[in-house]
Amino acid sequence: GLPSLPASEVPSKAKVVWQKFSSQTAFERDMYFYGTFPEDFTWGVSSSAHQIEGGWDADGKGPSIWDNFTHVPGNVNNNDTGDIACDSYNKVEEDIYMLRALGVKNYRFSLSWPRIFPTGRNNSINSYGVAYYNRLIDGLIANNITPIVTLYHWDLPQALQDIGGWESNELIDLFDSFADFCFQTFGDRVKFWITINEPNVISRLGYGNGLFPPNVKEPGSAPYRVAHILLKAHARVYHTYDDKYRASQGGVIALCPFISWAEPKTPSDPRDIEAADRYLQFLVGWFTHPIFKNGDYPEVMKWKVGNRSELQNLPSSRLPVFTAEEREYIRGTADVFCFNTYSAKIVTLSDHRPVAWGLRRVLNWIKEEYGNPPIYIIENGVGKKAKSDIDDNARIFYYKTYIDEALKAYKVDGVNLKGYNAWSLMDNFEWVDGYDPRFGLHQIDFDNPNRPRTPKRSAVYYAEIIRNNGIPLPKEDEFLYGEFPKNFSWSVATAAYQVRKLRWTPEVSVDNLNLGLSIWDKYSHTPLRIGKDATGDVACDSYHRIEEDVEMLKSLKVSHYRFSISWSRVLPDGTTRYINEKGLNYYERLIDALLAANIMPQVTLYHWDLPQALQDVGGWENDTIVQRFKEYAEVLFQRLGDKVKFWITLNEPYNTAYLGRAPYVVGHNLIKAHAEVWHLYNETFRARQGGLISITINSDWAEPRNPHNQEDIEAARRFMQFFLGWFAHPIFKNGDYSEVMKRRIQERSLAQEFTESEKQRIKGTYDYFGLNHYTTVLTYNLNYPKGVNVLLHRGVATVTDRSWLGSGSLWLKVTPFGFRKILRWIKEEYNNPPIYVTENGVSERGAFKFNDTWRMHYYRTYINEALKAVVLDGVNLRGYTAWTLMDNLEWAVGYEEKFGLYYVNFSDPALPRHPRASAKYYSQIINCNGFPDPATGPHPCLEQEPEGAEIALYVLFALSIVGAMGLALFAYKYGKSSKRSHKQSHMELVVNCNISTS
């Protein structure tokens, strides 16, 4: 056995795990990690006899306590039984075929005690049962699959329950007799034995709350009595193997508890750490402390239960006492550390959900608490309630994130992890939950007497992980060193309403204020409309800070600055009836200051802040706005066009349209307005002013949720045509909407048609393709009823991958790969137009942090994907713009989400701005025009002033570590998806542990 260790302190030394991980940022915690496991790592799947075999009374098998329990109506969900289950008793070859197809190195299953000894005793050996297991074991060996065999997985022979079950000391001898027979019969081929599966679940749920057979409800004392006997029975079996079989058979043997990680609610509070530690000692240490430590229960358990017993005036503690001989006998009775785990919980709360990062912490806790023994994860998986779940996306995300946390524990933390087994090979009988939650990598049709097995997508996914021996970095995600083309434009963006408002007071007239109201002024002054009732009345006060803004831009080293003009600041009522010279003068001063600093202005005519006066007559729904917009643009071309050489007509028309009452009417007018302004510039101003003018379209990238499912692939195409194609198709293709969009909208009688002459006028009204892009979604088909919302018309639902990193915005997952794909898509769909990325960035929430490593990671990975699009895919990318220069009013969410390279302290009336580390990092990318290869030696572009060099080194160091990793997201709770036999079993166990420790 493993060397035994001294008793744990209270709280145990393993509290270093909470201290080590509590300071992790969400970015560090959720960052996806790529790598592989050691060559000898063992991948497997697990099952258990009662859950899959069926044949409950076939060929002389005796009844188990679970057979009898399930035959009583009302005990099990739907009155399901394990009588047939997956019929594995008759399907050895089919089970082995599934295992071969997965490519597993091991298969963990259990032996049914009453199938081998129908009465529980060796005076009644059932040769048919023995033959069944011999066939299975021989079949596994023939296919190079190592059997991991559990001697006891809950299905006690009823005959032994009748003499007292696990409350009787007699069971120690009887279990040993059964184990001895199994070692003797199968041990020549079985080299990995588990004595008892989840003894902590047996004790609590069988004898505490009585949820499982034998239904004893004595929470205060019976679980402790039973656990005492289970530990002695385990030790006896271990010694029998050690004394009689180890020398000739050379196997390993251990016990397998259930563990759920516990996270202190406040990691800085020693009392919460103590509570989390106590929780783990009561849940796990109860069985592992005697075996791996000193032969006795954890000190905290002895003290707590003893103390409580004393208060209840009991003659002795409810926790039984081991004699000195027993302690010596139990200590060290395990060769490896096996455990099952499904989720984590926050101590002081009672929630239960898949929390992948809990697995890494569990593994670290075992390492610290038990001296880094060889560890095997024997069960890990997720159940879904569904009649069929062949396309089991959630299960793939579960394995993707949990296995990654196991990889981090092995690679980064040095945990001695030897193997991982998924639960379960196939859907099966989930104890008191019957067949409702499905945990299988293979689906079983329980309505079909033949019990056909069908691999789910997760089976294919898991097989790939096994084949790769982990999660190697995909080739296309490898970092690319190189430079962007010469004359590449580097820019940063803001928008008028978000940064440069002048204080607004409704009682002052337009004439006096020289500033008209915009629709956002009105909206933000409606209570509860904007996060924490924020408004853009002052925003960053850029209206008064031209010099400060330009200094920031100079330190970033950008060649361009993208900003928008407030229509109502220039034309207070939206028409040319009155031009506000003060407003125009502000923009003239800004442009002059930019040009003096050698920064080219990129000017957006419309960034959502429509004059309220125009909204009052219908806004974008009223087609007279096309003419109003043209007149507004003409004023700007006349007054600013000599100095501005880069114009954007409309920013993100999609958002203007789809949030309105009549999205297709609005979209129609936006496209016509854009086209008219483009023609105005083209025909009247281009020859003299020589600038570029186009539109900026925003779009997420869409991947099919299941890349092998045609419906999901179609959904992704439809998503792109409804999102990006809505405005791009008419302008960049043929003057008209895409066929897929027209067809679906016509079906709902909402179509807007362009006339032939309009199509001719719209087609080709671009000088470049302006793109705002932030994130990626996974799409699948969803047939909505006829609704009004554009999102519904496309018949597409979206989800995100749980392994993707999050951000300060719920909608924004960090998905760099999508950036390259959308750029390539635009190239192929629209005949390789010149592309300018006009917005790209990431948000955060919370207090100011100088070292915004997650933002540097975002820019590093996204800009690198843009570089791949240029170098590897031949995309005609001309420029890149970071969003945003400084924290600002993020529309309806107010100031909560911060995208800025510069931090703005909005609680200080002076609104000071401070650069974050990402500002220095972005300026370095600009200075290098990309990413010089470190292999060629230090590049001159990295040599900066001392302070900068220091930050640059820090950044490069941080990113060199981060560079090996990919992306992760932990956002979705699965609600009812934690293992529920295991829902009840493990959840009840957790609750009971809380009760015991309180």
Give a quick precis of the structure.
InterPro entries: GH, GH_1_N_CS, Glyco_hydro_1, Glyco_hydro_1_AS. With 998 residues, this protein is α/β, with parallel strands linked by helices.
- Termini separation comes to 34 Å
Count the beta strands.
33
CATH hierarchy, class of the largest domain: Alpha Beta
- Which fold name is given in CATH as the topology of the largest domain? TIM Barrel
Structural class: alpha/beta
CATH architecture heading of the largest domain: Alpha-Beta Barrel
The tally of structural domains comes to 2
Percent of residues in beta strands: 5-15%
Strand order of the largest sheet: 7-6-5-4-3-13-11-9
Give the radius of gyration: 34 Å
Give the % helix. Answer: 40-55%
- Would you tell me the overall average pLDDT? 91
Q: How would you describe this protein?
A:
Belongs to the glycosyl hydrolase 1 family. With 998 residues, the protein is α/β, with parallel strands linked by helices. The protein has two domains: 13-473 and 975-997, Glycosidases (TIM Barrel), CATH 3.20.20; 482-963, Alpha-Beta Barrel (TIM Barrel), CATH 3.20.20. 42% of the residues lie in helices and 14% in strands. The strands form ten sheets. The protein has an eight-stranded parallel beta sheet. The chain has an eight-stranded parallel β-barrel with strand order 19-20-21-22-23-25-28-29, surrounded by four helices. The protein has a three-stranded mixed beta sheet with strand order 24-26-27. A hairpin with an 8-residue loop joins strand 30 and strand 31 (913-915). Helix 12 (270-294) crosses helix 37 and helix 25 packs parallel to helix 27.
